[in-house]
Design a protein that fits this description.
17 helices; Rossmann fold; five-stranded parallel beta sheet; globular; GDP-Fuc_O-FucTrfase; alpha/beta; 2 domains; four-stranded parallel beta sheet; 432 residues
C-alpha cells in the first residue's frame, strides 16, 4: 500500500535492496529511489504490483553462463518489484560446446535429457533464501499452471543478434503459453537492471491476466559495479552456487593440493584469436604471454588449476604445454584430476545409485560448474577477457560467498580483475 515498502519473504523491505544513491535511474523530475523512511515523499513504492503472483523470464541467450546471468537478473527484478511473486524456473538450454561434450560417449539416438538449472545444477535451497521458486515442469501440471498456459499475457518480443529465438518464441515453445501478445518497448533503463516497474505496468496493463508477468530476455548486469549498485543483484548472486555435491568435490581437491593455488581460465574467445595464436607460434606463445603479464602469480603459486573445454584440441595443447612448462615445480591440474569429475568416484558418492551419480556428475554442465567453483576458490585467478564464464567467476570471488576458501568480501571495493587478452583479443597487435 502507499507509504509502506512491500515485504519480501525474508521480511526485508525494498529499501534494503537498493543502495543509498538511488541506482534505479531518475526519471526527469521524479526523485530517485532512496532508502528513506516509509513516510518520506521521495519513496516510490510498488504496492500496486503486489498482486503479481508468478513471474516467467526469457532465459535463452547463449550457453549456461549467459543463462546463469539471466536467472540472476530475473531473481533481482522479481525481488525488487514483485515481492509476492514466485519465479518460474525453466529447464536449461544446451549450448553447442556443452552439447558436444555431453554427447561424447552417449549412445546414438538416445533420448535427450532435460536439466533443471536449479536443483540439477545449482543449489535450489540457496535460491529459495532469496525468493520462492517453482520448477516449470512441475508448475505446468498444477491448476494454476494450466490456467496460465491459456491466459492472455503480454511481452516485449525481444530479439538478440546472437540467437534467432525471440521472447515470444521462448514463451510458446519452452513455457507452452498459447495466448501471447507482443507490444513495443524501448529499453532505456540502467544497464545493470534493464527492466523496471514501468515495463511491468505496461505488460500487466496489456494482458487480461493481472497476476502473471512475462519478462523479456533478462541477460545483462555483467559489469563489475552492478553488484555494488544493486544489493538485490548481489544477494541473488551470493545464492546462485553449484549444488552441494559439486562443491564437495572441489573442496576435497583443495584439501589435497598445495597452496597457494592459481586458477586460470583459458578460452580462445573467437576465430581471430585462434588463428593469431597458431600464426604466432601455437600454445608456446600463449604460455609466454601469460608469464609476461602475470609472472609473479605463476612464481608464487604451488598449484595451478586450469579450466578449459576438453573437446577443443587447441586448448588441450595449451594445457599440456602448461604442464610441460610448470610441472617440474608445481602441480598443474584440471577437472579430470578431481574426484567425480575424472574417473575416480569419491567414497562419499558411493551412496548414490548409478543413475543419481550419472545425473549429478555427468550432465552437460557439471564439469563447468566444478571448474567455476575451483577457480572461485583459488587464491588468485586469471580469466579470459570477454567470457561470461570468467565474469561469473570474478563475481563469485568479489562477493566472497561464505564457502569459498578465497578471502573475498562483498564490501571490498578494491577487488581488481586479472584477465588475459590473447593476441589482443584477436586484433593484429600481440599485446595485452
Amino acid at each position: 500500500s502507499e507509504g509502506t515498502w512491500p515485504q519480501s519473504p525474508k521480511g526485508e523491505g525494498v529499501a534494503d535492496l537498493i543502495n543509498t544513491e538511488g541506482l534505479l535511474p531518475s526519471r526527469g523530475s521524479e526523485a530517485p529511489i532512496l532508502p528513506a523512511s516509509p513516510s518520506s515523499s521521495h519513496v516510490r513504492t510498488f504496492g500496486e504490483l503486489s498482486g503479481i503472483r508468478y513471474v516467467y523470464y526469457d532465459y535463452w541467450l547463449g550457453q549456461f553462463n549467459n543463462q546463469l546471468a539471466a536467472l540472476a537478473q530475473a531473481m533481482t527484478l522479481a525481488r525488487i518489484f514483485t515481492p509476492n511473486a514466485t519465479l518460474v524456473l525453466p529447464p536449461v538450454k544446451l549450448g553447442v560446446e556443452s552439447l558436444t561434450q555431453f554427447q561424447k560417449g552417449r549412445e546414438a539416438g538416445s533420448e535427450p535429457l532435460v536439466f533443471r538449472i536449479a536443483g540439477d545444477l545449482l543449489d535450489v535451497d540457496e535460491i529459495k533464501k532469496v525468493l520462492p521458486v517453482v520448477q516449470f515442469d512441475e508448475f505446468q501440471s498444477t491448476t494454476e499452471g494450466r490456467r496460465l498456459s491459456s491466459s492472455h499475457l503480454c511481452v516485449f518480443d525481444e530479439r538478440f543478434p546472437t540467437t534467432p529465438n525471440t521472447s515470444k518464441m521462448i514463451y510458446e515453445n519452452t513455457y507452452k503459453l498459447t495466448k501471447i501478445e507482443t507490444f513495443d518497448w524501448k529499453i532505456d533503463g540502467n544497464y545493470c537492471i534493464k527492466y523496471d516497474d514501468r515495463y511491468i505496468r505496461e505488460a500487466i496493463n496489456c494482458g487480461q491476466t493481472k497476476d502473471a508477468l512475462l519478462l523479456p530476455k533478462t541477460f545483462g548486469g555483467m559489469t563489475a559495479n552492478c553488484t555494488d549498485s544493486f544489493p538485490a543483484l548481489r544477494k541473488s548472486l551470493v545464492h546462485l552456487i553449484p549444488r552441494k555435491e559439486l562443491r564437495r568435490s572441489v573442496d576435497q581437491l583443495f584439501r589435497e593440493i598445495e597452496a597457494p593455488v592459481l586458477g586460470v581460465h583459458i578460452r580462445l574467445i573467437n576465430d581471430a584469436v585462434r588463428n593469431c595464436m597458431k600464426t604466432e607460434g601455437g600454445p608456446a606463445i600463449v604460455i609466454k604471454w601469460m608469464q609476461d603479464q602475470f609472472g609473479s602469480l605463476f612464481d608464487q603459486s604451488r598449484s595451478i588449476y586450469v579450466a578449459f573445454n576438453p573437446t577443443d584440441s587447441d586448448l588441450v595443447d595449451i594445457f599440456q604445454d602448461m604442464k610441460n612448462n610448470f610441472g617440474s615445480s608445481k602441480r598443474v591440474i584440471s577437472c579430470k584430476d578431481m574426484v567425480n569429475c575424472g574417473h575416480t568416484r569419491a567414497p562419499w558418492a558411493e551412496e548414490l545409485n548409478i543413475n543419481e551419480y550419472e545425473f549429478i556428475f555427468r550432465n552437460p554442465y557439471s564439469s563447468s560448474l566444478m571448474d567455476m567453483w575451483a577457480l572461485a576458490s583459488s587464491d588468485e585467478f586469471i580469466g579470459t577477457r570477454g567470457s561470461t564464464f570468467t565474469t561469473n567467476v570474478h563475481r563469485w570471488r568479489k562477493l566472497g560467498t561464505p564457502e569459498l576458501r578465497y578471502g573475498g568480501n562483498e564490501n571490498d571495493r578494491n577487488y581488481t580483475r586479472k584477465d588475459m587478452c590473447i593476441c589482443n583479443c584477436g586484433t593484429t597487435q600481440n599485446v595485452h
